[in-house]
Amino acid sequence: MRSLAQAALAGLSLAVAAPSVQAGAEPFDVVASFSIIGDFAREVGGDRIRLTTLVGPNGDAHVYEPRPADAAAMTKARVVLVNGLQFEGFLDRLIEASGTTAAVVEVSKGAHILPVDGEAHDHHADEDKAADHHHDEASDEDGHAEKDHAGHDHGAYDPHAWQSVENAERYVKNIAEAFCLTDRDGCATYQENAAAYIGQLQTLDADIKTAIGELPQDKRTIITSHDAFGYFEHEYGLHFLAPKGLSTEADASAADIAALIRQVREERASAIFVENITNPRLAEQIAAETGLQLGGALYSDALSDKDGPAATYIDLMRHNLTTITSAIAGS
Amino acid sequence: MAIRFHRSMILACAATFFGCPASAEQIEAWRVFVADHSEPVVRAIDLRDGDEIERFALTGAARLHRSQSGRMVYAVQRDANRVQMIGTGIALGDHGDHGDITIGAPRLLKATLAGQKPVHLVERDGMAAAFFDDEGIARLVAEHAALEGTGEPQEIASRAPHHGVAIPFGVHMLMTRPHPSDPGALPVGLDLFGPDGAPAIDYAPCPDLHGEAQSGNLVALACETGLLVVAPGQARPEIRHLPYAAGLPEGKTTKLVGGTGLRYFLGNFAPRVLVLIDPMQEQENFRLVELPTRAVDFASHPAKPRFALAFTEDGHLHRIDVVAGRIDRSVRLTGLYSMDGHWSDPRPRIAVAGPRIVVSDPLAGQLHVVDTETFETMGSIAVAGEPFSIVAVGGAGETH
Ligand SMILES: [Zn+2]
Ligand SMILES: [Zn+2]
Questions:
Q1: Of A132-146, B124-138, B353-367, which gets the smallest average pLDDT?
Q2: Distance from A65 to chain B by nearest Cα, in Å?
Q3: Does the pTM exceed 0.90?
Q4: What is the ipTM of this complex?
Q5: A210 neighbors A260 (Cβ within 8 angstroms)
Q6: Mean pLDDT score of chain B, rounded to an integer?
Q7: Using CB atoms, which residue from A11, A97, A144 is nearest to B281?
Q8: Residue A6: what pLDDT?
Q9: Where do the domains of chain B lie?
Q10: Nearest beta carbon to residue A93 from set B95, B261, B287
Q11: Which of A2, A185, A254, A301 is the most exposed place for a label (fewest CB within 10 A)?
C-alpha cells in the first residue's frame, strides 16, 4: 500500500515528481503556497526539488481552504515557500495542523513593498537573511490595519508584490538562497538557474515599460475586480480601480460599487477586466452600468492551467500586458 | 449541582485559560448547552467552574445544534413539533488583528419554528433551515432576525412528506427530493431551489440520501452510491457526485461531519470503520479509519484542525489524526455503551469548547472534560437527569 504522502502527491495534479536526478542527489521536498511561487521554484530548483503547489492554477489563495493532503505535504517538506504579507490567510492554520519543521520562507522579504496607503517600504529590509525564516505571527507587529475594506482588515501591506517584475527578481533570489541553505551541493545550480531566469525577467520588465509608456496618458485608468495590481500601477504607471479590496474574501458592498461607478464616470476609465480568480459577475455588472467594454481576463493571483495563456509567470505578465494594451487601444 | 474537578482544572485558571483575565481586557469564555435525553430541559453551563448559569424549560426533549457564529443554539423537538431557539449570550467579532467578545446572559428567544416532526436542521452563514418530515416542508429563519425578534420564518415545500433535509446555500436552497412512491423511504436526490423559491429543472440523484455536513465553502451529502459535493459556482451552486472508490469494502455513509480548519469530511462507513473524505483530491478520496469497537458519536475538532474525535462503545474517546488517517490517542471516559438497542437510546455525545473537549455520559449523569492539549481527562461535571445532546460555544477576545 502506498504511503499517505505518496498518495497525496499522486493525487495532486500539480505535484511535480522529478523523474531523474543528478548523480546521488535525492530531490528534496518543497511546498509552494501558490502557483506563481511554484513556477519560480521550478525555474530555480529544476530536477533537484520535488515540488508541491498548494493553491493551483486559477486558485484564489485569499480564501483557500487547506486539505489534509496539504498538511501531509507540509509535514514532508524541507522548504515551504510562501508570499507572506498576509496573502495566505490559511497559512498559520496549516502550519499548526501539519506540525511541519520545515523552513518557512517568505519570498517577498527584501522586495519593494507597498503599504496599503501607497507609500513604498522595504519589507524586512533590516533583516539581511532572506531564508530560514520561521513563520511567526508576532513578527508583523507593525501590521496595524490602515485600510478597512468591507469591514475586514488585511494588514498594513499590499501582498501582491509579484505584479512588479523587479520584485519577482527578489522572490527568485530568495528562493535560490533558501535552496542553497537546504542543499549546499546544489547551490551553484540554483544560482545559475536563478541568474538565467532573472535575465528573462529583466527583458520582460523592459518590454512592459516600453509598451505602457506608449499608451496615451488620458487612457490609463482601468478597472479590475480586486486590488491586485497596486504594484503594476506603482511600477509601470497605469491607474487601477477595483470594487473589492486587497483580498477577495469580503464582498463589495452596494455602496462600494456605486462609488466605483461614479469614479469610473469621473475619471473616464478606458476598460474593465475580469480576473481569473474571481467571479466575473461584478465586473460584468459594472460594465453594463457604465457602458465600458469588457477587456478580457487578467491573471492576478494565479497562473492559468497548462494549456491556458498564463501557464508561467512570464506568460502571465505578457498576457496581462497584451490584454491591457489592446483593450486601451480599442477604447 | 455538584462539581468534581481534578486539581489540574483549577490550576488551568492560573495559566490564563478560560475566564481568567490574561490582561485587563482579554478574556475567554466557554459555555456548553446540554439537553436532557427525555426531559424538556436545556441547561447552560459555564465551563470555567461547571456552574449551571441557566436552565430552560422547553416544550419537549431536544437535540441541539449551534449556529456557525456561536450566538444561537437551536433546540429541535421532534416529538413536540417545534424548534426553539436559545441566544447563547456570547458573541465574537473578528477584526483581523484582534477579536472582540461580548458576554451576556443566555436567553430563550420568542422565535419558534412550528410544524410536524422536525428532525434535521442545518445552519449556514446565519440562516437556519429545519425540515419537518411529516409535512415535507422546510422552514427557514435568519439568526439575526431570531435574536432581534424580527422577521417571519419562510417556508419552502418539497414534493411530499419524507425524512428530508434542507440546506441554505447563499441565495439558493438545497432540499431533498422524496422517493416517488414510498414516503417511508430515504430521499432519492437533491433539488436546488433558486432565490425565487422555484426548483431548478434538473436535480442531483443520490439514492438513500442521509447525512449532511459542511466544511469550508463545501456541503456534502451521503448517498448509497457515494457523496454529493456542493460547491459555490458562477451563477448557482455546482453539485457533483463523488462515487465511493472502487477498492472500498462494502459499506456506506449515513452520518457526516465536516472538518474545520482543514477541509475534509468524516463519515461512518461500516460498524467499526469511519471514512475520511477529501472531495477535492483526484485519487485516494476515501481513507478508512478502523476503530476498536463501534462508533457511538464522532465530531471534527475545531480547536485542533489536524484531529477529529470519535467516541466508541467501549467508553473511549479517540483522537483521529486526519492527516495520517489513524487513531492518535485514546482516553477512557465512561462505562460501556452498546450500539445494540434503539438508535435513539441515550448515548454519549461530543462537543469541543476550545481548550476543553466535553463528552456527555447520560447514564452516569455526567459531562466528562478532556484537555485539548494533553488529551487527558480533567474531571467531570455532574448534571441531573440524562445529559445527552450537547453543543459548546465561546472563545477569547477583548471586551470594550
Ligand atoms: Zn489578491
Ligand atoms: Zn435523519
A1: A132-146
A2: 6
A3: no
A4: 0.84
A5: no
A6: 91
A7: A11
A8: 39
A9: 12-398
A10: B261
A11: A254
